[in-house]
Amino acid sequence: MKVVSAEQRLFAFYLVPDFTMLAFSSAVEALRLANAVLGYEAYSWRVVSSDGQKIRASCGLTLEADNSVLIERQHLNTRLRPAVSVICGGKHIERCADRAADAWLRECRNRGVAVAGLCTGAHILARAGLLDDRKCAIHWENQPAFIERFSGANVSTGIYEVDANIYTCAGGSASFDMMLHMIGRDFGEGVVSGICEIALVDRVRDPGERQRLPFAKRVGVQDPTVMKLVEKMEKSLTDPMQVEELTASIGLSRRQIERLFRNELRCSPARYYLKLRLERARLLLVQTTLPVVEVAIACGFVSASHFSKCYRETFGCSPQEMRGRSMKTPASRPAACASAA
């Protein structure tokens, strides 16, 4: 492990099983490049795993750990205490529980150590009780399950969030943007510009930039009226509105709206709305253990039977069958992770 000088800002990266390599490497590379631009080691880092043993990424690569969570807790009382403790999440985050890590994170906050979550790292921060009434970001694919489980957190659609010395980002390349924000706060925009030049990054994204375009834009919708209505639909999946309510402020007749949707999306507004709700339901089925009836309610269906019928017609299987398939998906769960559940 590197010897840390008093002038360095130390980052402790806690890697969970199946962590996302892109999110982790993007964060570390931002710190490495900051050192290169500054001409000295302003930042240092170490890798932490639950038990101090090797940890496997979702891509199959394995990294050596410098410390265990137990040793990290001990370091909070020494000069080796980090400036920031970063949780690197990834696949199957809901399957990995570690009470020792939760306690460590709470102690970090109590001792003034900033905490951060990459990719699905916000899930672990929320489980430790650190995101109640806090703004946070998590990967869009995990948002439905996260919102259902941690209703006290204020989840954004942006690429990263900063709230009271708690940093969270959606993962992927957004880790780089969030780290540049930290580096810019420490050393100014000149250093950030130098990092971007070396990394061939053309711009630094703002935290509020959406993780992905609304679906209507992704499939090439051009009509602004259709785009506006789809955005309204995406914001009201739990409590669906009638088509008449959605179109009340548009100033067009229902027949005109129907024609626009068929031209742009090859389906009616009602059918498209149903597709959005069913996609949310699919994510909840594969990411949570919510009963099917609760998934149905969370996606605006009045009954489990109607939900199951619509689901089968769209995906070719029942909600129960979809969940059964997802549970058979292999997940790396080292004993150190599962033992504390």
TrEMBL record:
Keywords: DNA-binding, Transcription, Transcription regulation. PROSITE patterns: HTH_ARAC_FAMILY_1, HTH_ARAC_FAMILY_2. SUPFAM superfamilies: Class I glutamine amidotransferase-like, Homeodomain-like. Residues 227-325 form the HTH araC/xylS-type domain. Transmembrane segments: none annotated. CDD domains: GATase1_AraC_ArgR_like (cd03136). Gene3D superfamilies: 3.40.50.880, Homeodomain-like. SMART domains: HTH_ARAC. Pfam families: DJ-1_PfpI, HTH_18. Residues 321-341 are annotated as: Disordered. Residues 330-341 have a biased composition (Low complexity). PANTHER family: ARAC-FAMILY TRANSCRIPTIONAL REGULATOR, HTH-TYPE TRANSCRIPTIONAL REGULATOR RV1931C. This is Transcriptional regulator GlxA family with amidase domain. It comes from Sinorhizobium kostiense.
